[in-house]
Design brief:
The chain is an alpha/beta fold. The chain contains 12 helices and 12 strands. The strands form 2 sheets. It has an 8-stranded parallel β-barrel with strand order 1-2-3-4-7-8-9-12, surrounded by 4 helices. A 4-stranded antiparallel sheet has the order 5-6-11-10. The longest helix is centred in the middle third of the chain and has 22 residues.
């Protein structure tokens, strides 16, 4: 496996020099963040990121993400234009050595939490989701942690209204339409598409979710069989769905060569509904058996990219929620240990 670290470009307050010092770190996972969704990225913008990574002794083989425009998900009139631009972006990043693109097909919100600074017993804070708090939210007057600046109130209500006409079946058909056009480009240029799980893996505010469980992935892979069509195995996102056997999914899709990227993090279920909080990466800290998941990946031939996913804010760090340095660095060290043990005892 190749251990990587999410880096938000030159505006990230974590410098590449710090990332390079994390033991076993091979590269960064990044993107072009200053181009509107749906537009083509310039060669210069991708080359700049590549040069910065190279200068720090890090690879840039994973892009997270090239966002999918809402018109593609909705199947609206300009989707073909946005798909054409998407294909251009795939060709551009491939020229600079990118091998994997993580993306998602979640309507409107590509993640949802109800608290960005959940206070943990050890004094750290982390992201969390509370069913009780979610049910208090008025869909007609949405003010969500982390999302208040993503859309104007008018834009948000317009999108929510548009999706009222989109069923799960239609959203899936729109995903297949998209993949049937981008996967041949991936096959041509040697880039793997790795869809991210719905986060959390259930419908929210009446919006359909279609990448939430094993059956959803089987259906998608059956519709577009190329192995360039793969998954980002996000343990925290799939794991929030309590009926998901994440280790079993890791084994199954690694054996198929479809796990192109893995986001490894742990969560702890906090009640008997679907509430959870994000915790340290260790198995002992949460509800997921991280050692079992890594063992399943290794035993089934996984050789893709891995990154520590959301971390807590610890040691008085006031980092971007989920994306501070210290806890993700600890997570990376733990992941190194899990893979070393699994590989040496295979």
């Amino acid at each position: 496996m190749k251990l990587t670290f999410r880096w938000y470009g030159e505006k990230d307050n974590i410098p590449l020099s710090y990332i390079r010092q994390i033991p076993g770190m091979t590269g960064v996972v990044t993107a072009v963040y200053d181009v509107p969704v749906g537009e083509a990225w310039s060669d210069e913008s991708v080359a700049r990121l590549k040069a910065l990574a190279d200068g720090a002794g890090l690879e840039m083989e994973v892009i997270e993400s090239i966002p999918v425009h809402e018109d593609i998900k909705l199947g609206r009139g300009k989707r073909d234009l946005y798909i054409e631009n998407y294909c251009k972006n795939l060709r551009t990043v491939a020229k600079y050595g990118v091998k994997c693109v993580c993306y998602n097909f979640m309507p409107v919100f590509d993640w949802l939490r109800t608290d960005m600074h959940h206070k943990n017993a050890d004094g750290s804070d982390s992201l969390s989701y509370s069913r009780a708090d979610y049910e208090k939210v008025d869909p007609n007057n949405l003010h969500l942690p982390g999302w208040d600046e993503s859309y104007s109130p008018e834009e948000l209500q317009s999108l929510l209204a548009a999706y009222k006409e989109v069923s799960h079946e239609q959203l899936f058909a729109n995903l297949v339409y998209f993949l049937e056009r981008v996967i041949p480009v991936c096959d041509e240029v040697g880039v793997k598409m790795a869809i991210h799980a719905d986060d959390p893996p259930w419908d929210i505010f009446g919006l359909p979710r279609i990448v939430s469980c094993e059956a959803d992935l089987d259906r998608m892979f059956s519709a577009v069989p190329s192995v360039s069509n793969g998954v980002t195995l996000c343990t925290g996102s799939f794991g929030a769905g309590r009926t998901n056997d994440v280790a079993g999914m890791a084994a199954k899709y690694a054996a198929q060569g479809r796990v192109h990227f893995a986001h490894l993090r742990n969560i702890r279920y906090t009640d008997d509904t679907d509430s959870f909080c994000e915790v340290g990466h260790r198995s002992a800290d949460g509800s997921l058996d991280m050692a079992k998941i890594v063992r399943a990946l290794v035993d089934n031939g996984f050789d893709g990219y891995v990154r520590p996913d959301h971390g807590r804010n610890i040691w008085d760090e006031n980092g971007k929620p989920g994306y501070g340095l210290y806890d993700r660095a600890l997570g990376a060290a733990y992941i190194n240990g899990l893979f070393e043990m699994a590989e040496k005892t295979k």
